[in-house]
Amino acid sequence: MKFTPTTLDGSYLIDLDAKEDERGFFARCFCKNEFYNHGLNAQWVQINNSLTKGKGTLRGLHFQYPPHAEVKLVRCLTGKIWDVIVDLRLGSNTYGQWFGAELSGINRTMMYVPKGFAHGFISLEDNSEILYLVSEFYSPSSEETLIWNDENVSINWPLQPLLISSKDSKAKKLQEIDPITIQE
């Protein structure tokens, strides 16, 4: 696996080292030792799988407050998404800044999302299937959503959303969200 830091401290793009031959390919998506060697979380409590049926569907930007703040490892299995994270950590040099990358079943790139970040994506193809490894259990009382089009964050989405859930469309702006204090 190749770990490439993004512009937001603590987050990474991870490219699989696929071994290919006439049968197809084999690649490790996770190796506890490699994650530990990069100082990253290697403890997962849940694996989630979602299918986004239509191109232009936006999900997010979701996060959980401590004590249920979570690390995510996100991979697109089929289709293609524009995956976005926003730094919400109190005192961070990149607070309020975003980073985005294309994840697809073809490029096999993963996004490592640290605690204290909001996460979301827009589907760039129909039938995009996403796998998420998460470090904390879902906690409805700790969850929050950052609005996708906050002018103070100014995410450069590659296309206008065609479908957004009612909950995500009523999300809070950055200035309405308490910055997240992360204690390790």
Automatic annotation (TrEMBL):
User: Under which EC number(s) is this enzyme classified?
Assistant: 5.1.3.13
* Name used for this protein in its record: dTDP-4-dehydrorhamnose 3,5-epimerase
Identify the catalytic residues: H62 (proton acceptor), Y132 (proton donor)
Pathway where it operates: Carbohydrate biosynthesis; dTDP-L-rhamnose biosynthesis
Q: Which gene encodes it?
A: rfbC
Q: Does the keyword Isomerase apply?
A: yes
Q: SUPFAM superfamilies per the record?
A: RmlC-like cupins
GO annotation, cellular component aspect:
cytosol
> What reaction is this protein's catalytic activity?
dTDP-4-dehydro-6-deoxy-alpha-D-glucose = dTDP-4-dehydro-beta-L-rhamnose
Q: Which NCBIfam families match?
A: rmlC
Q: Which family does it belong to?
A: Belongs to the dTDP-4-dehydrorhamnose 3,5-epimerase family.
Q: Enumerate the InterPro entries for this protein.
A: RmlC-like (IPR000888), RmlC-like_jellyroll (IPR014710), RmlC_Cupin_sf (IPR011051)
Pfam families given in the database record: dTDP_sugar_isom
Record organism: Synechococcus elongatus PCC 11802
Assembly, in brief, is:
Homodimer.
